[in-house]
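Recall that a protein's primary structure is simply its ordered list of amino acids. Everything else, from secondary elements to tertiary packing, is in principle encoded there. The following example makes that idea concrete.
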Amino acid sequence: MPRLTPENERLAREIIDRYPVPRSALIPLCHLAQEQDGWLTDDAMTHLAELVGITPAEVLGTASFYEMFKRHPVGTYHVNICTQVACMLLGADELLEHASKTLDVHPGQTTSDGLFTLEDAECIAACTEAPCLQINYRYFHRVSNDDFDQIVDDLRRHGRTTVPTRSNDTGDIPPHGVLARVRQHLRPDQRAGNADPNSATAPAWLSEGR
């Protein structure tokens, strides 16, 4: 199980430099590690702990609180089908059963080819668009059984889908762990974004209101 690559360690140190307290960078660092491996490995958490000066147990305590951080390998495409009240009333349980048959897995399992992990999810905040699901946290709304089959077929064949999503109209679904396609880079004098502007160590641009 790998630690951060040299390139990602460089990015991690850049992220840490944005915060007055290194451990405040922990959540974006966990996302960086998960983007690298598709899940949050023990070695990666140990490396993050070293970078911000805390224990691996403290990293685990933070990561285990958030559903988006996976502590075990998952498929390239992580499928969350909402089964809460609004979605349930409009057919989410039937959609989940159909998805299970289509993928030949039970919720919580990964397909034999490693492409899809299926889960039922708590409310994903799209109640007016029920039944809804997410694939790698990209939303699909008012999904029918036929829509689901089309999505799966598209991703198996092409790695993208013709069924539109609200968050990504191009149809591209990046591998699990990838949150953004454009990474923000700040100059050294623009970091420590939460610093007190009246502090003697605050960068000049902060006290000048830029």
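The two ends are 42 Å apart (CA to CA). Residues 78 and 120 are 11 Å apart (CA to CA).
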